[in-house]
Amino acid sequence: MTVPLRCPAGEKIAPFPAPLTGPGRAEAEQPRPDRPSVTELRLSAFAAHRGAGFPLGPLSLLCGPSGSGKSSALRAYEALARLGGGAELGEVFLDPAACVPEWARPDAQRRRGFRIGCTADGPEGPVRLDVAVQAEPHLRIVGERLTAGGRTLLETALRNPGRGAVQAAWHTAGPSLVTRAALPDDRLGTALLPLRVAGRTDGQRQVLAAAEQMVVALRSVFVCDPLPRSVRTEVPLGAGRLLRGCDNLAEVLWRTRSECGRRHGLLVDAVRAGCAGPVCDVLAEPGAGGAVGTVRAWLDRGDGLRTPLGRLGNGELRYLALALVLLTGPGVLEVDPVGEVPAALQTLTVLVDGFDRDLDARQREGLVRLAARMCERGHIRLVGAVSDASWAAGVDGVTVVDLAP
Question: CA torsion 100→106→109→111, rounded to 10°?
Answer without folding.
Answer: -10
